[in-house]
Fold each of these.
Amino acid sequence: MIRVVLPAHLRTLARVDGEVLVAVEGSATQRSVLDALEARYPMLGGTIRDHVTHQRRPFLRFFACEEDVSHELPDAPLPDAVASGAEPFWIVGAIAGG
């Protein structure tokens, strides 16, 4: 099981508290984790990725093992610590401004 930490507004939308657990088929990648997350919580569809292109929405970032993996390929394997459930996959709302 993959542990996923959502930002507060997406936790509210999904009606969950704290981390969520998702099971992925095959290897743990950004795509497989997000597919499993959207399958388990359909109300999140389109909030993290565009419905058509499946590109990450602006102002959202992905972190694994304290590293920003937002710009890595969606099918690149996530670190073993995330795949094993030892570390969570973080979806973080980015802040813009100056």
Amino acid sequence: MDLKNGFARDERGSVTLVVITLFLVTVMTSLIVVDIASVAIAKRSLTQVTEAAAQRGVRNLDMVAYYSGEFDLTTMASNLFGIGPEDPGVPIDCSKALGDAHGALIDWTNGDKSLRRVEITALRISDITCDGFGIQLVTEATAKLPITIPVFKVDSVQISARVSTTNTRKAGFSPFGIRIF
């Protein structure tokens, strides 16, 4: 042992401590990355099921609102010269739309496990609104982590998805339902 300025200069074993420390840091980082990736995949899956539910809901056409103020010769002439009424969008039946959106989420929850992420549990709708032309849907769920890290003691996280969708008519000139351009 070499004593210089009162300090021990024995360096045996210091590399072992560094290697063990770096190994533990690498393992912990890998575990955290696996958990983060799992949450990201669960979040994307929740967003996709929320989009599907909103799309299922928005397909319900409100026939009365859609066919009120039907196309006539005056409207055709106005649209031909570009001075026609502003298209508000395709009206939807909100009562049917909300029921269909809720039904789509129930179908997904109770459906085949091969079609959904097994780590997503407790799926629920936290907010759903319909303004007559579109649906806004917010869902929440719990995502279970594949690896529980003893230091953090977290085994699940809350995730949410927010989606809005509307129907639109294709722009162009279509007198009497025949699209010209």
Amino acid sequence: MKSVKQRFYFLIGLLLFSLAFSVESEARLFDINTETFAAYFRLNYAPSTLKKTTYEKSSPFGETYSGDISAIYGGEFGFVYSTRYLNVRFGLEVVRPPTLAVTASNSAGTKLYDLSSEITAVIPKIGIEYNIRQWHETRLFLNGNYGLGNLGMNNSYTFTSTGTAAPMSGADYTEEGRGTAALTEGCIGLETLMFDTTTLVFDVGYRQLNFTSLTQNRSATTLNGAVAKGDTMLNTDGSKRSVNMTGTYAGLAFRFWIK
């Protein structure tokens, strides 16, 4: 994880250097057909299919939860090398839903505990863009990406007096899960000049990112029983806990063309 963070900070530093260099460079006539190298920053949004799947089956007591995960956001830094028909993209993306804070209640509506859930995937990735059509300041392209996602998930439980009583008899704890999964995604995008040598990119697509098996990253006594670091993270029914971020997405990016 440390090496991924180091690459992330390196990309940020290189992006800032590229921006400073492009600002100080002399003004030039922009032609998207002849530009060859750019740094970029990208944001994306996806409706979530996760809902309650990351925590709902971690307890055998059938609690009712006050909310679920409804959206997934992402941020990406990287670089683009461009030719007339093909572009190569190198990036590092961080994908995560907003931190979720929900309450769990029993069938009588009595609060049992507070649950805070945080999920983050860090994904080094490489992509190929095929330029379908190019004009002087605009182009339409198809994009395919491949990467390796590194997931961290923390679910923290804080019990009320009712939750610490039998039959639940819970005690505050945090379960940590870690996992890896391949990322594949494809999209269609439109890039157009915004100002000077900065372009704006819109894209919509579909990604496959399913963490089918997680590993416990700490020992704890959970509602599902005692677990040890290194164990496979399981649901109450014995199935593997999973985090599935597969689905459609939309992105907005800024590219800073250097040459």
Amino acid sequence: MGARDEGAISALAEAIRSASRCVALTGAGVSTLSGIQDFRGKNGLYRTMNADTIFDISIFRHDPSYFYRMSGDFIYALDDKKPSTVHMALAALESAGYLDAVITQNIDLLHTKAGSRRVIEIHGSPAVHHCLSCGFQQGFSEVANVVRRGEIPRCPACGGILKPDITFFGEALPKKALEEAIDESRKADLMLVLGTSLIVHPAAGLPERTLRAGGRIVLVNDMPTALDDRAFLRFEDLETTFTGLLRTLELDR
């Protein structure tokens, strides 16, 4: 890491130290470090399959086997995935009192696994599955065992189809999570925008809310975004940036 990079990371550390309210917005790029494919990156899901079809609610209702067959390796192998450097760093920042919340577009549960306590999952989560017929709830591990056997998870109460509490295309985002995310974005005087190309709305509009309220944003992403020229700081490599940040804040012990 050169002197210029070190200077930028020192500036990032100072911005985090001095912020009265700091939040993070994370996208799929954060989890590629854990071996999880993103959607639109160089090796993303859109290169190998049609993710829009897999997560289409009308298709799911017509033929849920398609979703469970196509998403088996992507979602139902999450037990084998470990949090990345960035997941662990965000949990450390929260524990040290520097970070107030993580707003995530991801559905991989890794922020919680890393130890983050305030995680706002605006695209939902597979932690809970609901029966589409009677509303019965079942946890991720039980459903994952069924999916890994090549079966469709069904409700033990009525035999209906179980669906993960992930927001599919054609469904509204979880209202409470979205309201919390908007509120945190407005209140933040510093938002860390990590591993997202800021294409998918409404998540892509959250940094704008911070900017309009007078706050600053820091971007860390390996692809350009529409807000690059409005960022207080801009980095490309997540792992290098957060390794250096933890060292500068003396949280790497």
